[in-house]
């Protein structure tokens, strides 16, 4: 069977799992063949030689198992990152969080010390290290598997000299002076029913407590106590009002919220008075 025929046959099996079934079959084929899109399209009429291997991947994908875990790769900010089961998959909206941090750091125009809480696969820290010349980063996570993966991604992008990875619960192992804390923490309420594909991701990277914003509030509290100037976080789409109310407890110079690509409230930036 040719590559073209295989795509047609297998994509029908994924039509209830994804809105781009043919594209996903191509992604799985490129992963197995170690080839790019151009090669695949130029060789549509060639025999496909890895049908058994593809069959296994398609069968797993039919269960809503994330394609990123199948190919151990995800794209973020135009760069390729390693991903693996047991570590949260990067989301496109987190690019906005990175952009907001870059804007602040460039305006400050000085050496900057950043703490990332809940680094996961390391995408935020790695991108900041790539985009900002004079930066040093401490990246923490409670997941040992995440720390190891983040280190691999830092090495892959040649920024390991700018980032120190630590196994730590929030600020537990951090005593240095920090200019900015950035985080995409768990913020989903414990009783929220997840989409099928998200159920394969680690629950401790998703659920933030009974209400969902408990961990966010812990981060806000400790960032303020440590007299850190900036705090940037992702949050749930329905958490703007309660967090705005919560901010009244603190001596804040200014704060702002931002929306994601779907126009849902998705995060905030706080500048504390120092």
From TrEMBL:
Tell me, what's a Pfam family for it?
Answer: MTS
Q: What is its EC number?
A: 2.1.1.297
Q: Which residues form the Release factor glutamine methyltransferase N-terminal domain?
A: 7-71
- Please list the reactions this protein catalyses: L-glutaminyl-[peptide chain release factor] + S-adenosyl-L-methionine = N(5)-methyl-L-glutaminyl-[peptide chain release factor] + S-adenosyl-L-homocysteine + H(+)
- Alphabetical list of InterPro entries matching this protein: HemK-like, N5-glutamine_MTase, PrmC_N, RF_methyltr_PrmC, SAM-dependent_MTases_sf, Small_mtfrase_dom
- Which keywords has UniProt assigned to this entry? Methyltransferase, S-adenosyl-L-methionine, Transferase
- The answer to whether keyword rRNA-binding applies is no
Q: Where is the Methyltransferase small domain?
A: 105-190
Q: Give GO MF terms, alphabetically.
A: peptide chain release factor N(5)-glutamine methyltransferase activity
Enzyme kind, highest EC tier:
transferase
GO BP, one annotated term: methylation
Q: What is this protein called?
A: peptide chain release factor N(5)-glutamine methyltransferase
